């Protein structure tokens, strides 16, 4: 298998962390994986692959062999699985995309850009440290709300979404999923800000 693009969704494994703000990257990958990808488990990660966009759910994702990877280490060790997969399949950092939560961006907003620092996100820090570069495409999914300033960041990211936020999550996940599909189709990687209505 020759993988052209590796898309990494960040989160923490296990039922305890399911549906927490820190696991929004897993949520987007789960939505992508339901679109005719094949699931495997190796490199201490869950991996989904599709071949040249075959299958109705991936009709727009042509000319790419895409792998989706959910590290099954904890967040601050995410780089281990990403590095192992990237080395094995000889994927350059420029072809690694990362989807993750961002406490500096308001809930309902997604920012897409290449490179930059981790801004304190431990999963991204781990990936940068293991790859030795910041040159990955980022999908930063905003999770900040009115409660963010009132509690410690570490506690906030491990909380479940509010009922109101849960109602909007499918729209946010679809927005991110569709942007991933669009970039796979067009190759256009210019910085972009997306918002739900």
TrEMBL record:
Keywords carried by this UniProt record: Cytoplasm, Hydrolase, RNA-binding, tRNA-binding
Molecular function, one GO term: tRNA binding
The enzyme's E.C. designation: 3.1.1.29
Transmembrane segments: none
InterPro entries (alphabetical): Pept_tRNA_hydro (IPR001328), Pept_tRNA_hydro_CS (IPR018171), Pept_tRNA_hydro_sf (IPR036416)
GO cellular component, one term: cytoplasm
Binding site for tRNA: 17, 74, 76
GO biological process: protein quality control for misfolded or incompletely synthesized proteins; rescue of stalled ribosome
Keyword tRNA-binding: yes
Principal location: cytoplasm
Subunit description: Monomer.
Name of the protein this chain belongs to: Peptidyl-tRNA hydrolase
Organism this protein belongs to: candidate division WS5 bacterium
Taxon lineage: Bacteria, candidate division WS5
Gene label: pth
